[in-house]
Amino acid sequence: MVNKDYILRLAEKFGRTLAIVLRLRAYDKHEEALIFIDEELFRTTGLTSSFLNTLDEQTVVEALSPLGRPNIEATLGTALLLKAEGEIYEAKGNTHESYYRYVKALHLLLHLHLHAPIEDAEDIREEMNALIRNLDAFDLPRPTRQLLFAYQEHRGFYATAEDTLFELLESTPRDATLLQQGREFYRRLDLKSDADLAAGNFSREEVQEGREQLQRFE
């Protein structure tokens, strides 16, 4: 189990790095900021930004998981630096480049969440929430949306998790694995108290309605 204090120390370390990026941007030194991010990515991972951005999300995960599990520092650093890079491209009006960096950053953070308590660090949790908001109006790759579903349930956002589940089912309505995940989702919700469900903007009646809707996909 990854120690929470280790995550907090990493958050503080990368916070200092991102503060340098913000200072450069404050003086309109966007190109210098991009160069700095590229250097930090290479120092952290041995990979450049241009190379990372030629890879799909799962390949980036694999590149940062040399022993089959994510290198926590490299994965977290890559995600935060790609997000910062995306913000620069967005500020320059290049939403195409910002989108792909945001997606990679979110995918890495959601994947890392499965292995380390990164949401315990408030700064990292806010970075994740900002990415989710930034990408709300865009389509997400299926693997990223599946990770988002798991994250939303873990955080107790049951209504939004259900929305994500049915968005996935709309695109692949007869996916047996996804249908099983849906059945397990509602079984877990059955075990929640009414107060827990209400905190997740959900109710006992909506659990039953959701299960019935899931059966229609079957």
Structure description:
The structure is a single chain. The protein is an all-alpha fold and 218 residues long. The protein folds into 2 domains: 1-137, no CATH class; 139-218, no CATH class. It has helices at 4-26, 30-45, 49-52, 57-63, 72-91, 95-113, 122-134, 142-154, 158-171, 176-190, 194-199, 204-217. α10 packs antiparallel against α12. The termini are far apart.
Lay out the secondary structure.
Blueprint: H1 4-26, H2 30-45, H3 49-52, H4 57-63, H5 72-91, H6 95-113, H7 122-134, H8 142-154, H9 158-171, H10 176-190, H11 194-199, H12 204-217
Largest sheet: none
- N-to-C span: 37 Å
Whole-number mean pLDDT: 95
- The helix content, as a percent range, equals over 70%
SSE order in H/E notation? HHHHHHHHHHHH
Task: Give the gist of this structure.
This protein is an all-alpha fold. Helix content is 75%, strand content 0%. It holds the Pfam family DUF6483.
Summarize this structure as a short list of keywords or feature phrases.
mainly alpha; 218 residues; 12 helices
